[in-house]
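Input (HTH tetR-type domain-containing protein):
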Amino acid sequence: MKTELLEKIEALFWENAFAELSMDDIGKNLGIKKSSLYYHFPSKDQMFLETIGYSFEKYLSFLDETLVSGDLKEIVVSLINFPLKKKNLFAVVLQKGYCKNELVRGFILKSNLEITTKFKDTIWARFNMNKERLILFRSIVDDLWKKNCTIWCADSADFESVTNEIVRLFS
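Output:
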């Protein structure tokens, strides 16, 4: 039940900013009473934190699968497409400015350290990237997934040429 709730809440926060949704709005969107929400979550902040945590675990699972298999191009394509394709809230949490929320900021910082370690332990080792190249690689990929639809919705040929160029730069 809680996993199903978190899944639906994640979708709501993907589409709407935290400040835009009241507990009443969330309850209405989920088809449950506000009191039922409070049964599962003591506050809206706690609900959001648990949702981010749930989303983070899904993102980690994706990284665990993606970073250890496939060639560099498959990894680049997967990293760029994942946030939009899966509507993963954690993947866009910094873009949406949620780090301003005191409760969430610490979790985001800790989680990003874990992700950095995961990239270092896999990409660095598999593709012989030094620290600086790894930082550049992540920065480029992170920036491109933020622009994914606005750049490539109309022309997948551009997407192909950009991913090929990233692979060329980091191979």
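The two ends are 45 Å apart (CA to CA).
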